[in-house]
Specification:
The protein is an all-beta fold. It contains no helices and eleven strands.
Amino acid sequence: MAVPQQLLSGLAKAGTQHIVAARITTANETPTIAQIVRLANNTSAILWINVIGVRTDLGGPSATSNFTRRLRAKRATNIGATITVVDTIGTDDIDEIGTDVAVGTSTTDVTVTVTGLAAETYVWDVVTTATISTEFPDIIDT
């Protein structure tokens, strides 16, 4: 996994929206963190996560996987991040069974993990729109 890079940080006014994109490549079925949203203390956020995976090892987009998730996440002062609701929006649209996306937490972060297939190369684009209620989270791209 690449070393995470901090893309955005600081404070934003309540009710503002921020969009960040990440791109990674997988070549097997190992779950791989594609994006990390680090929540600041006393932050509540609604995240819309759109993920598109495209199989590229056959000379073009031979298969695609499309996922949309909506979630609420929060973090109180010096307490780990929690996800209170995760919704699948619509039906996951996948050409090859086994590709997947998962949303979870890791200490102060919300993580987006993608899973490709054995011996197949997928390029994953992850676009997250964050509506922030108090402080702005640091968004890290792996």
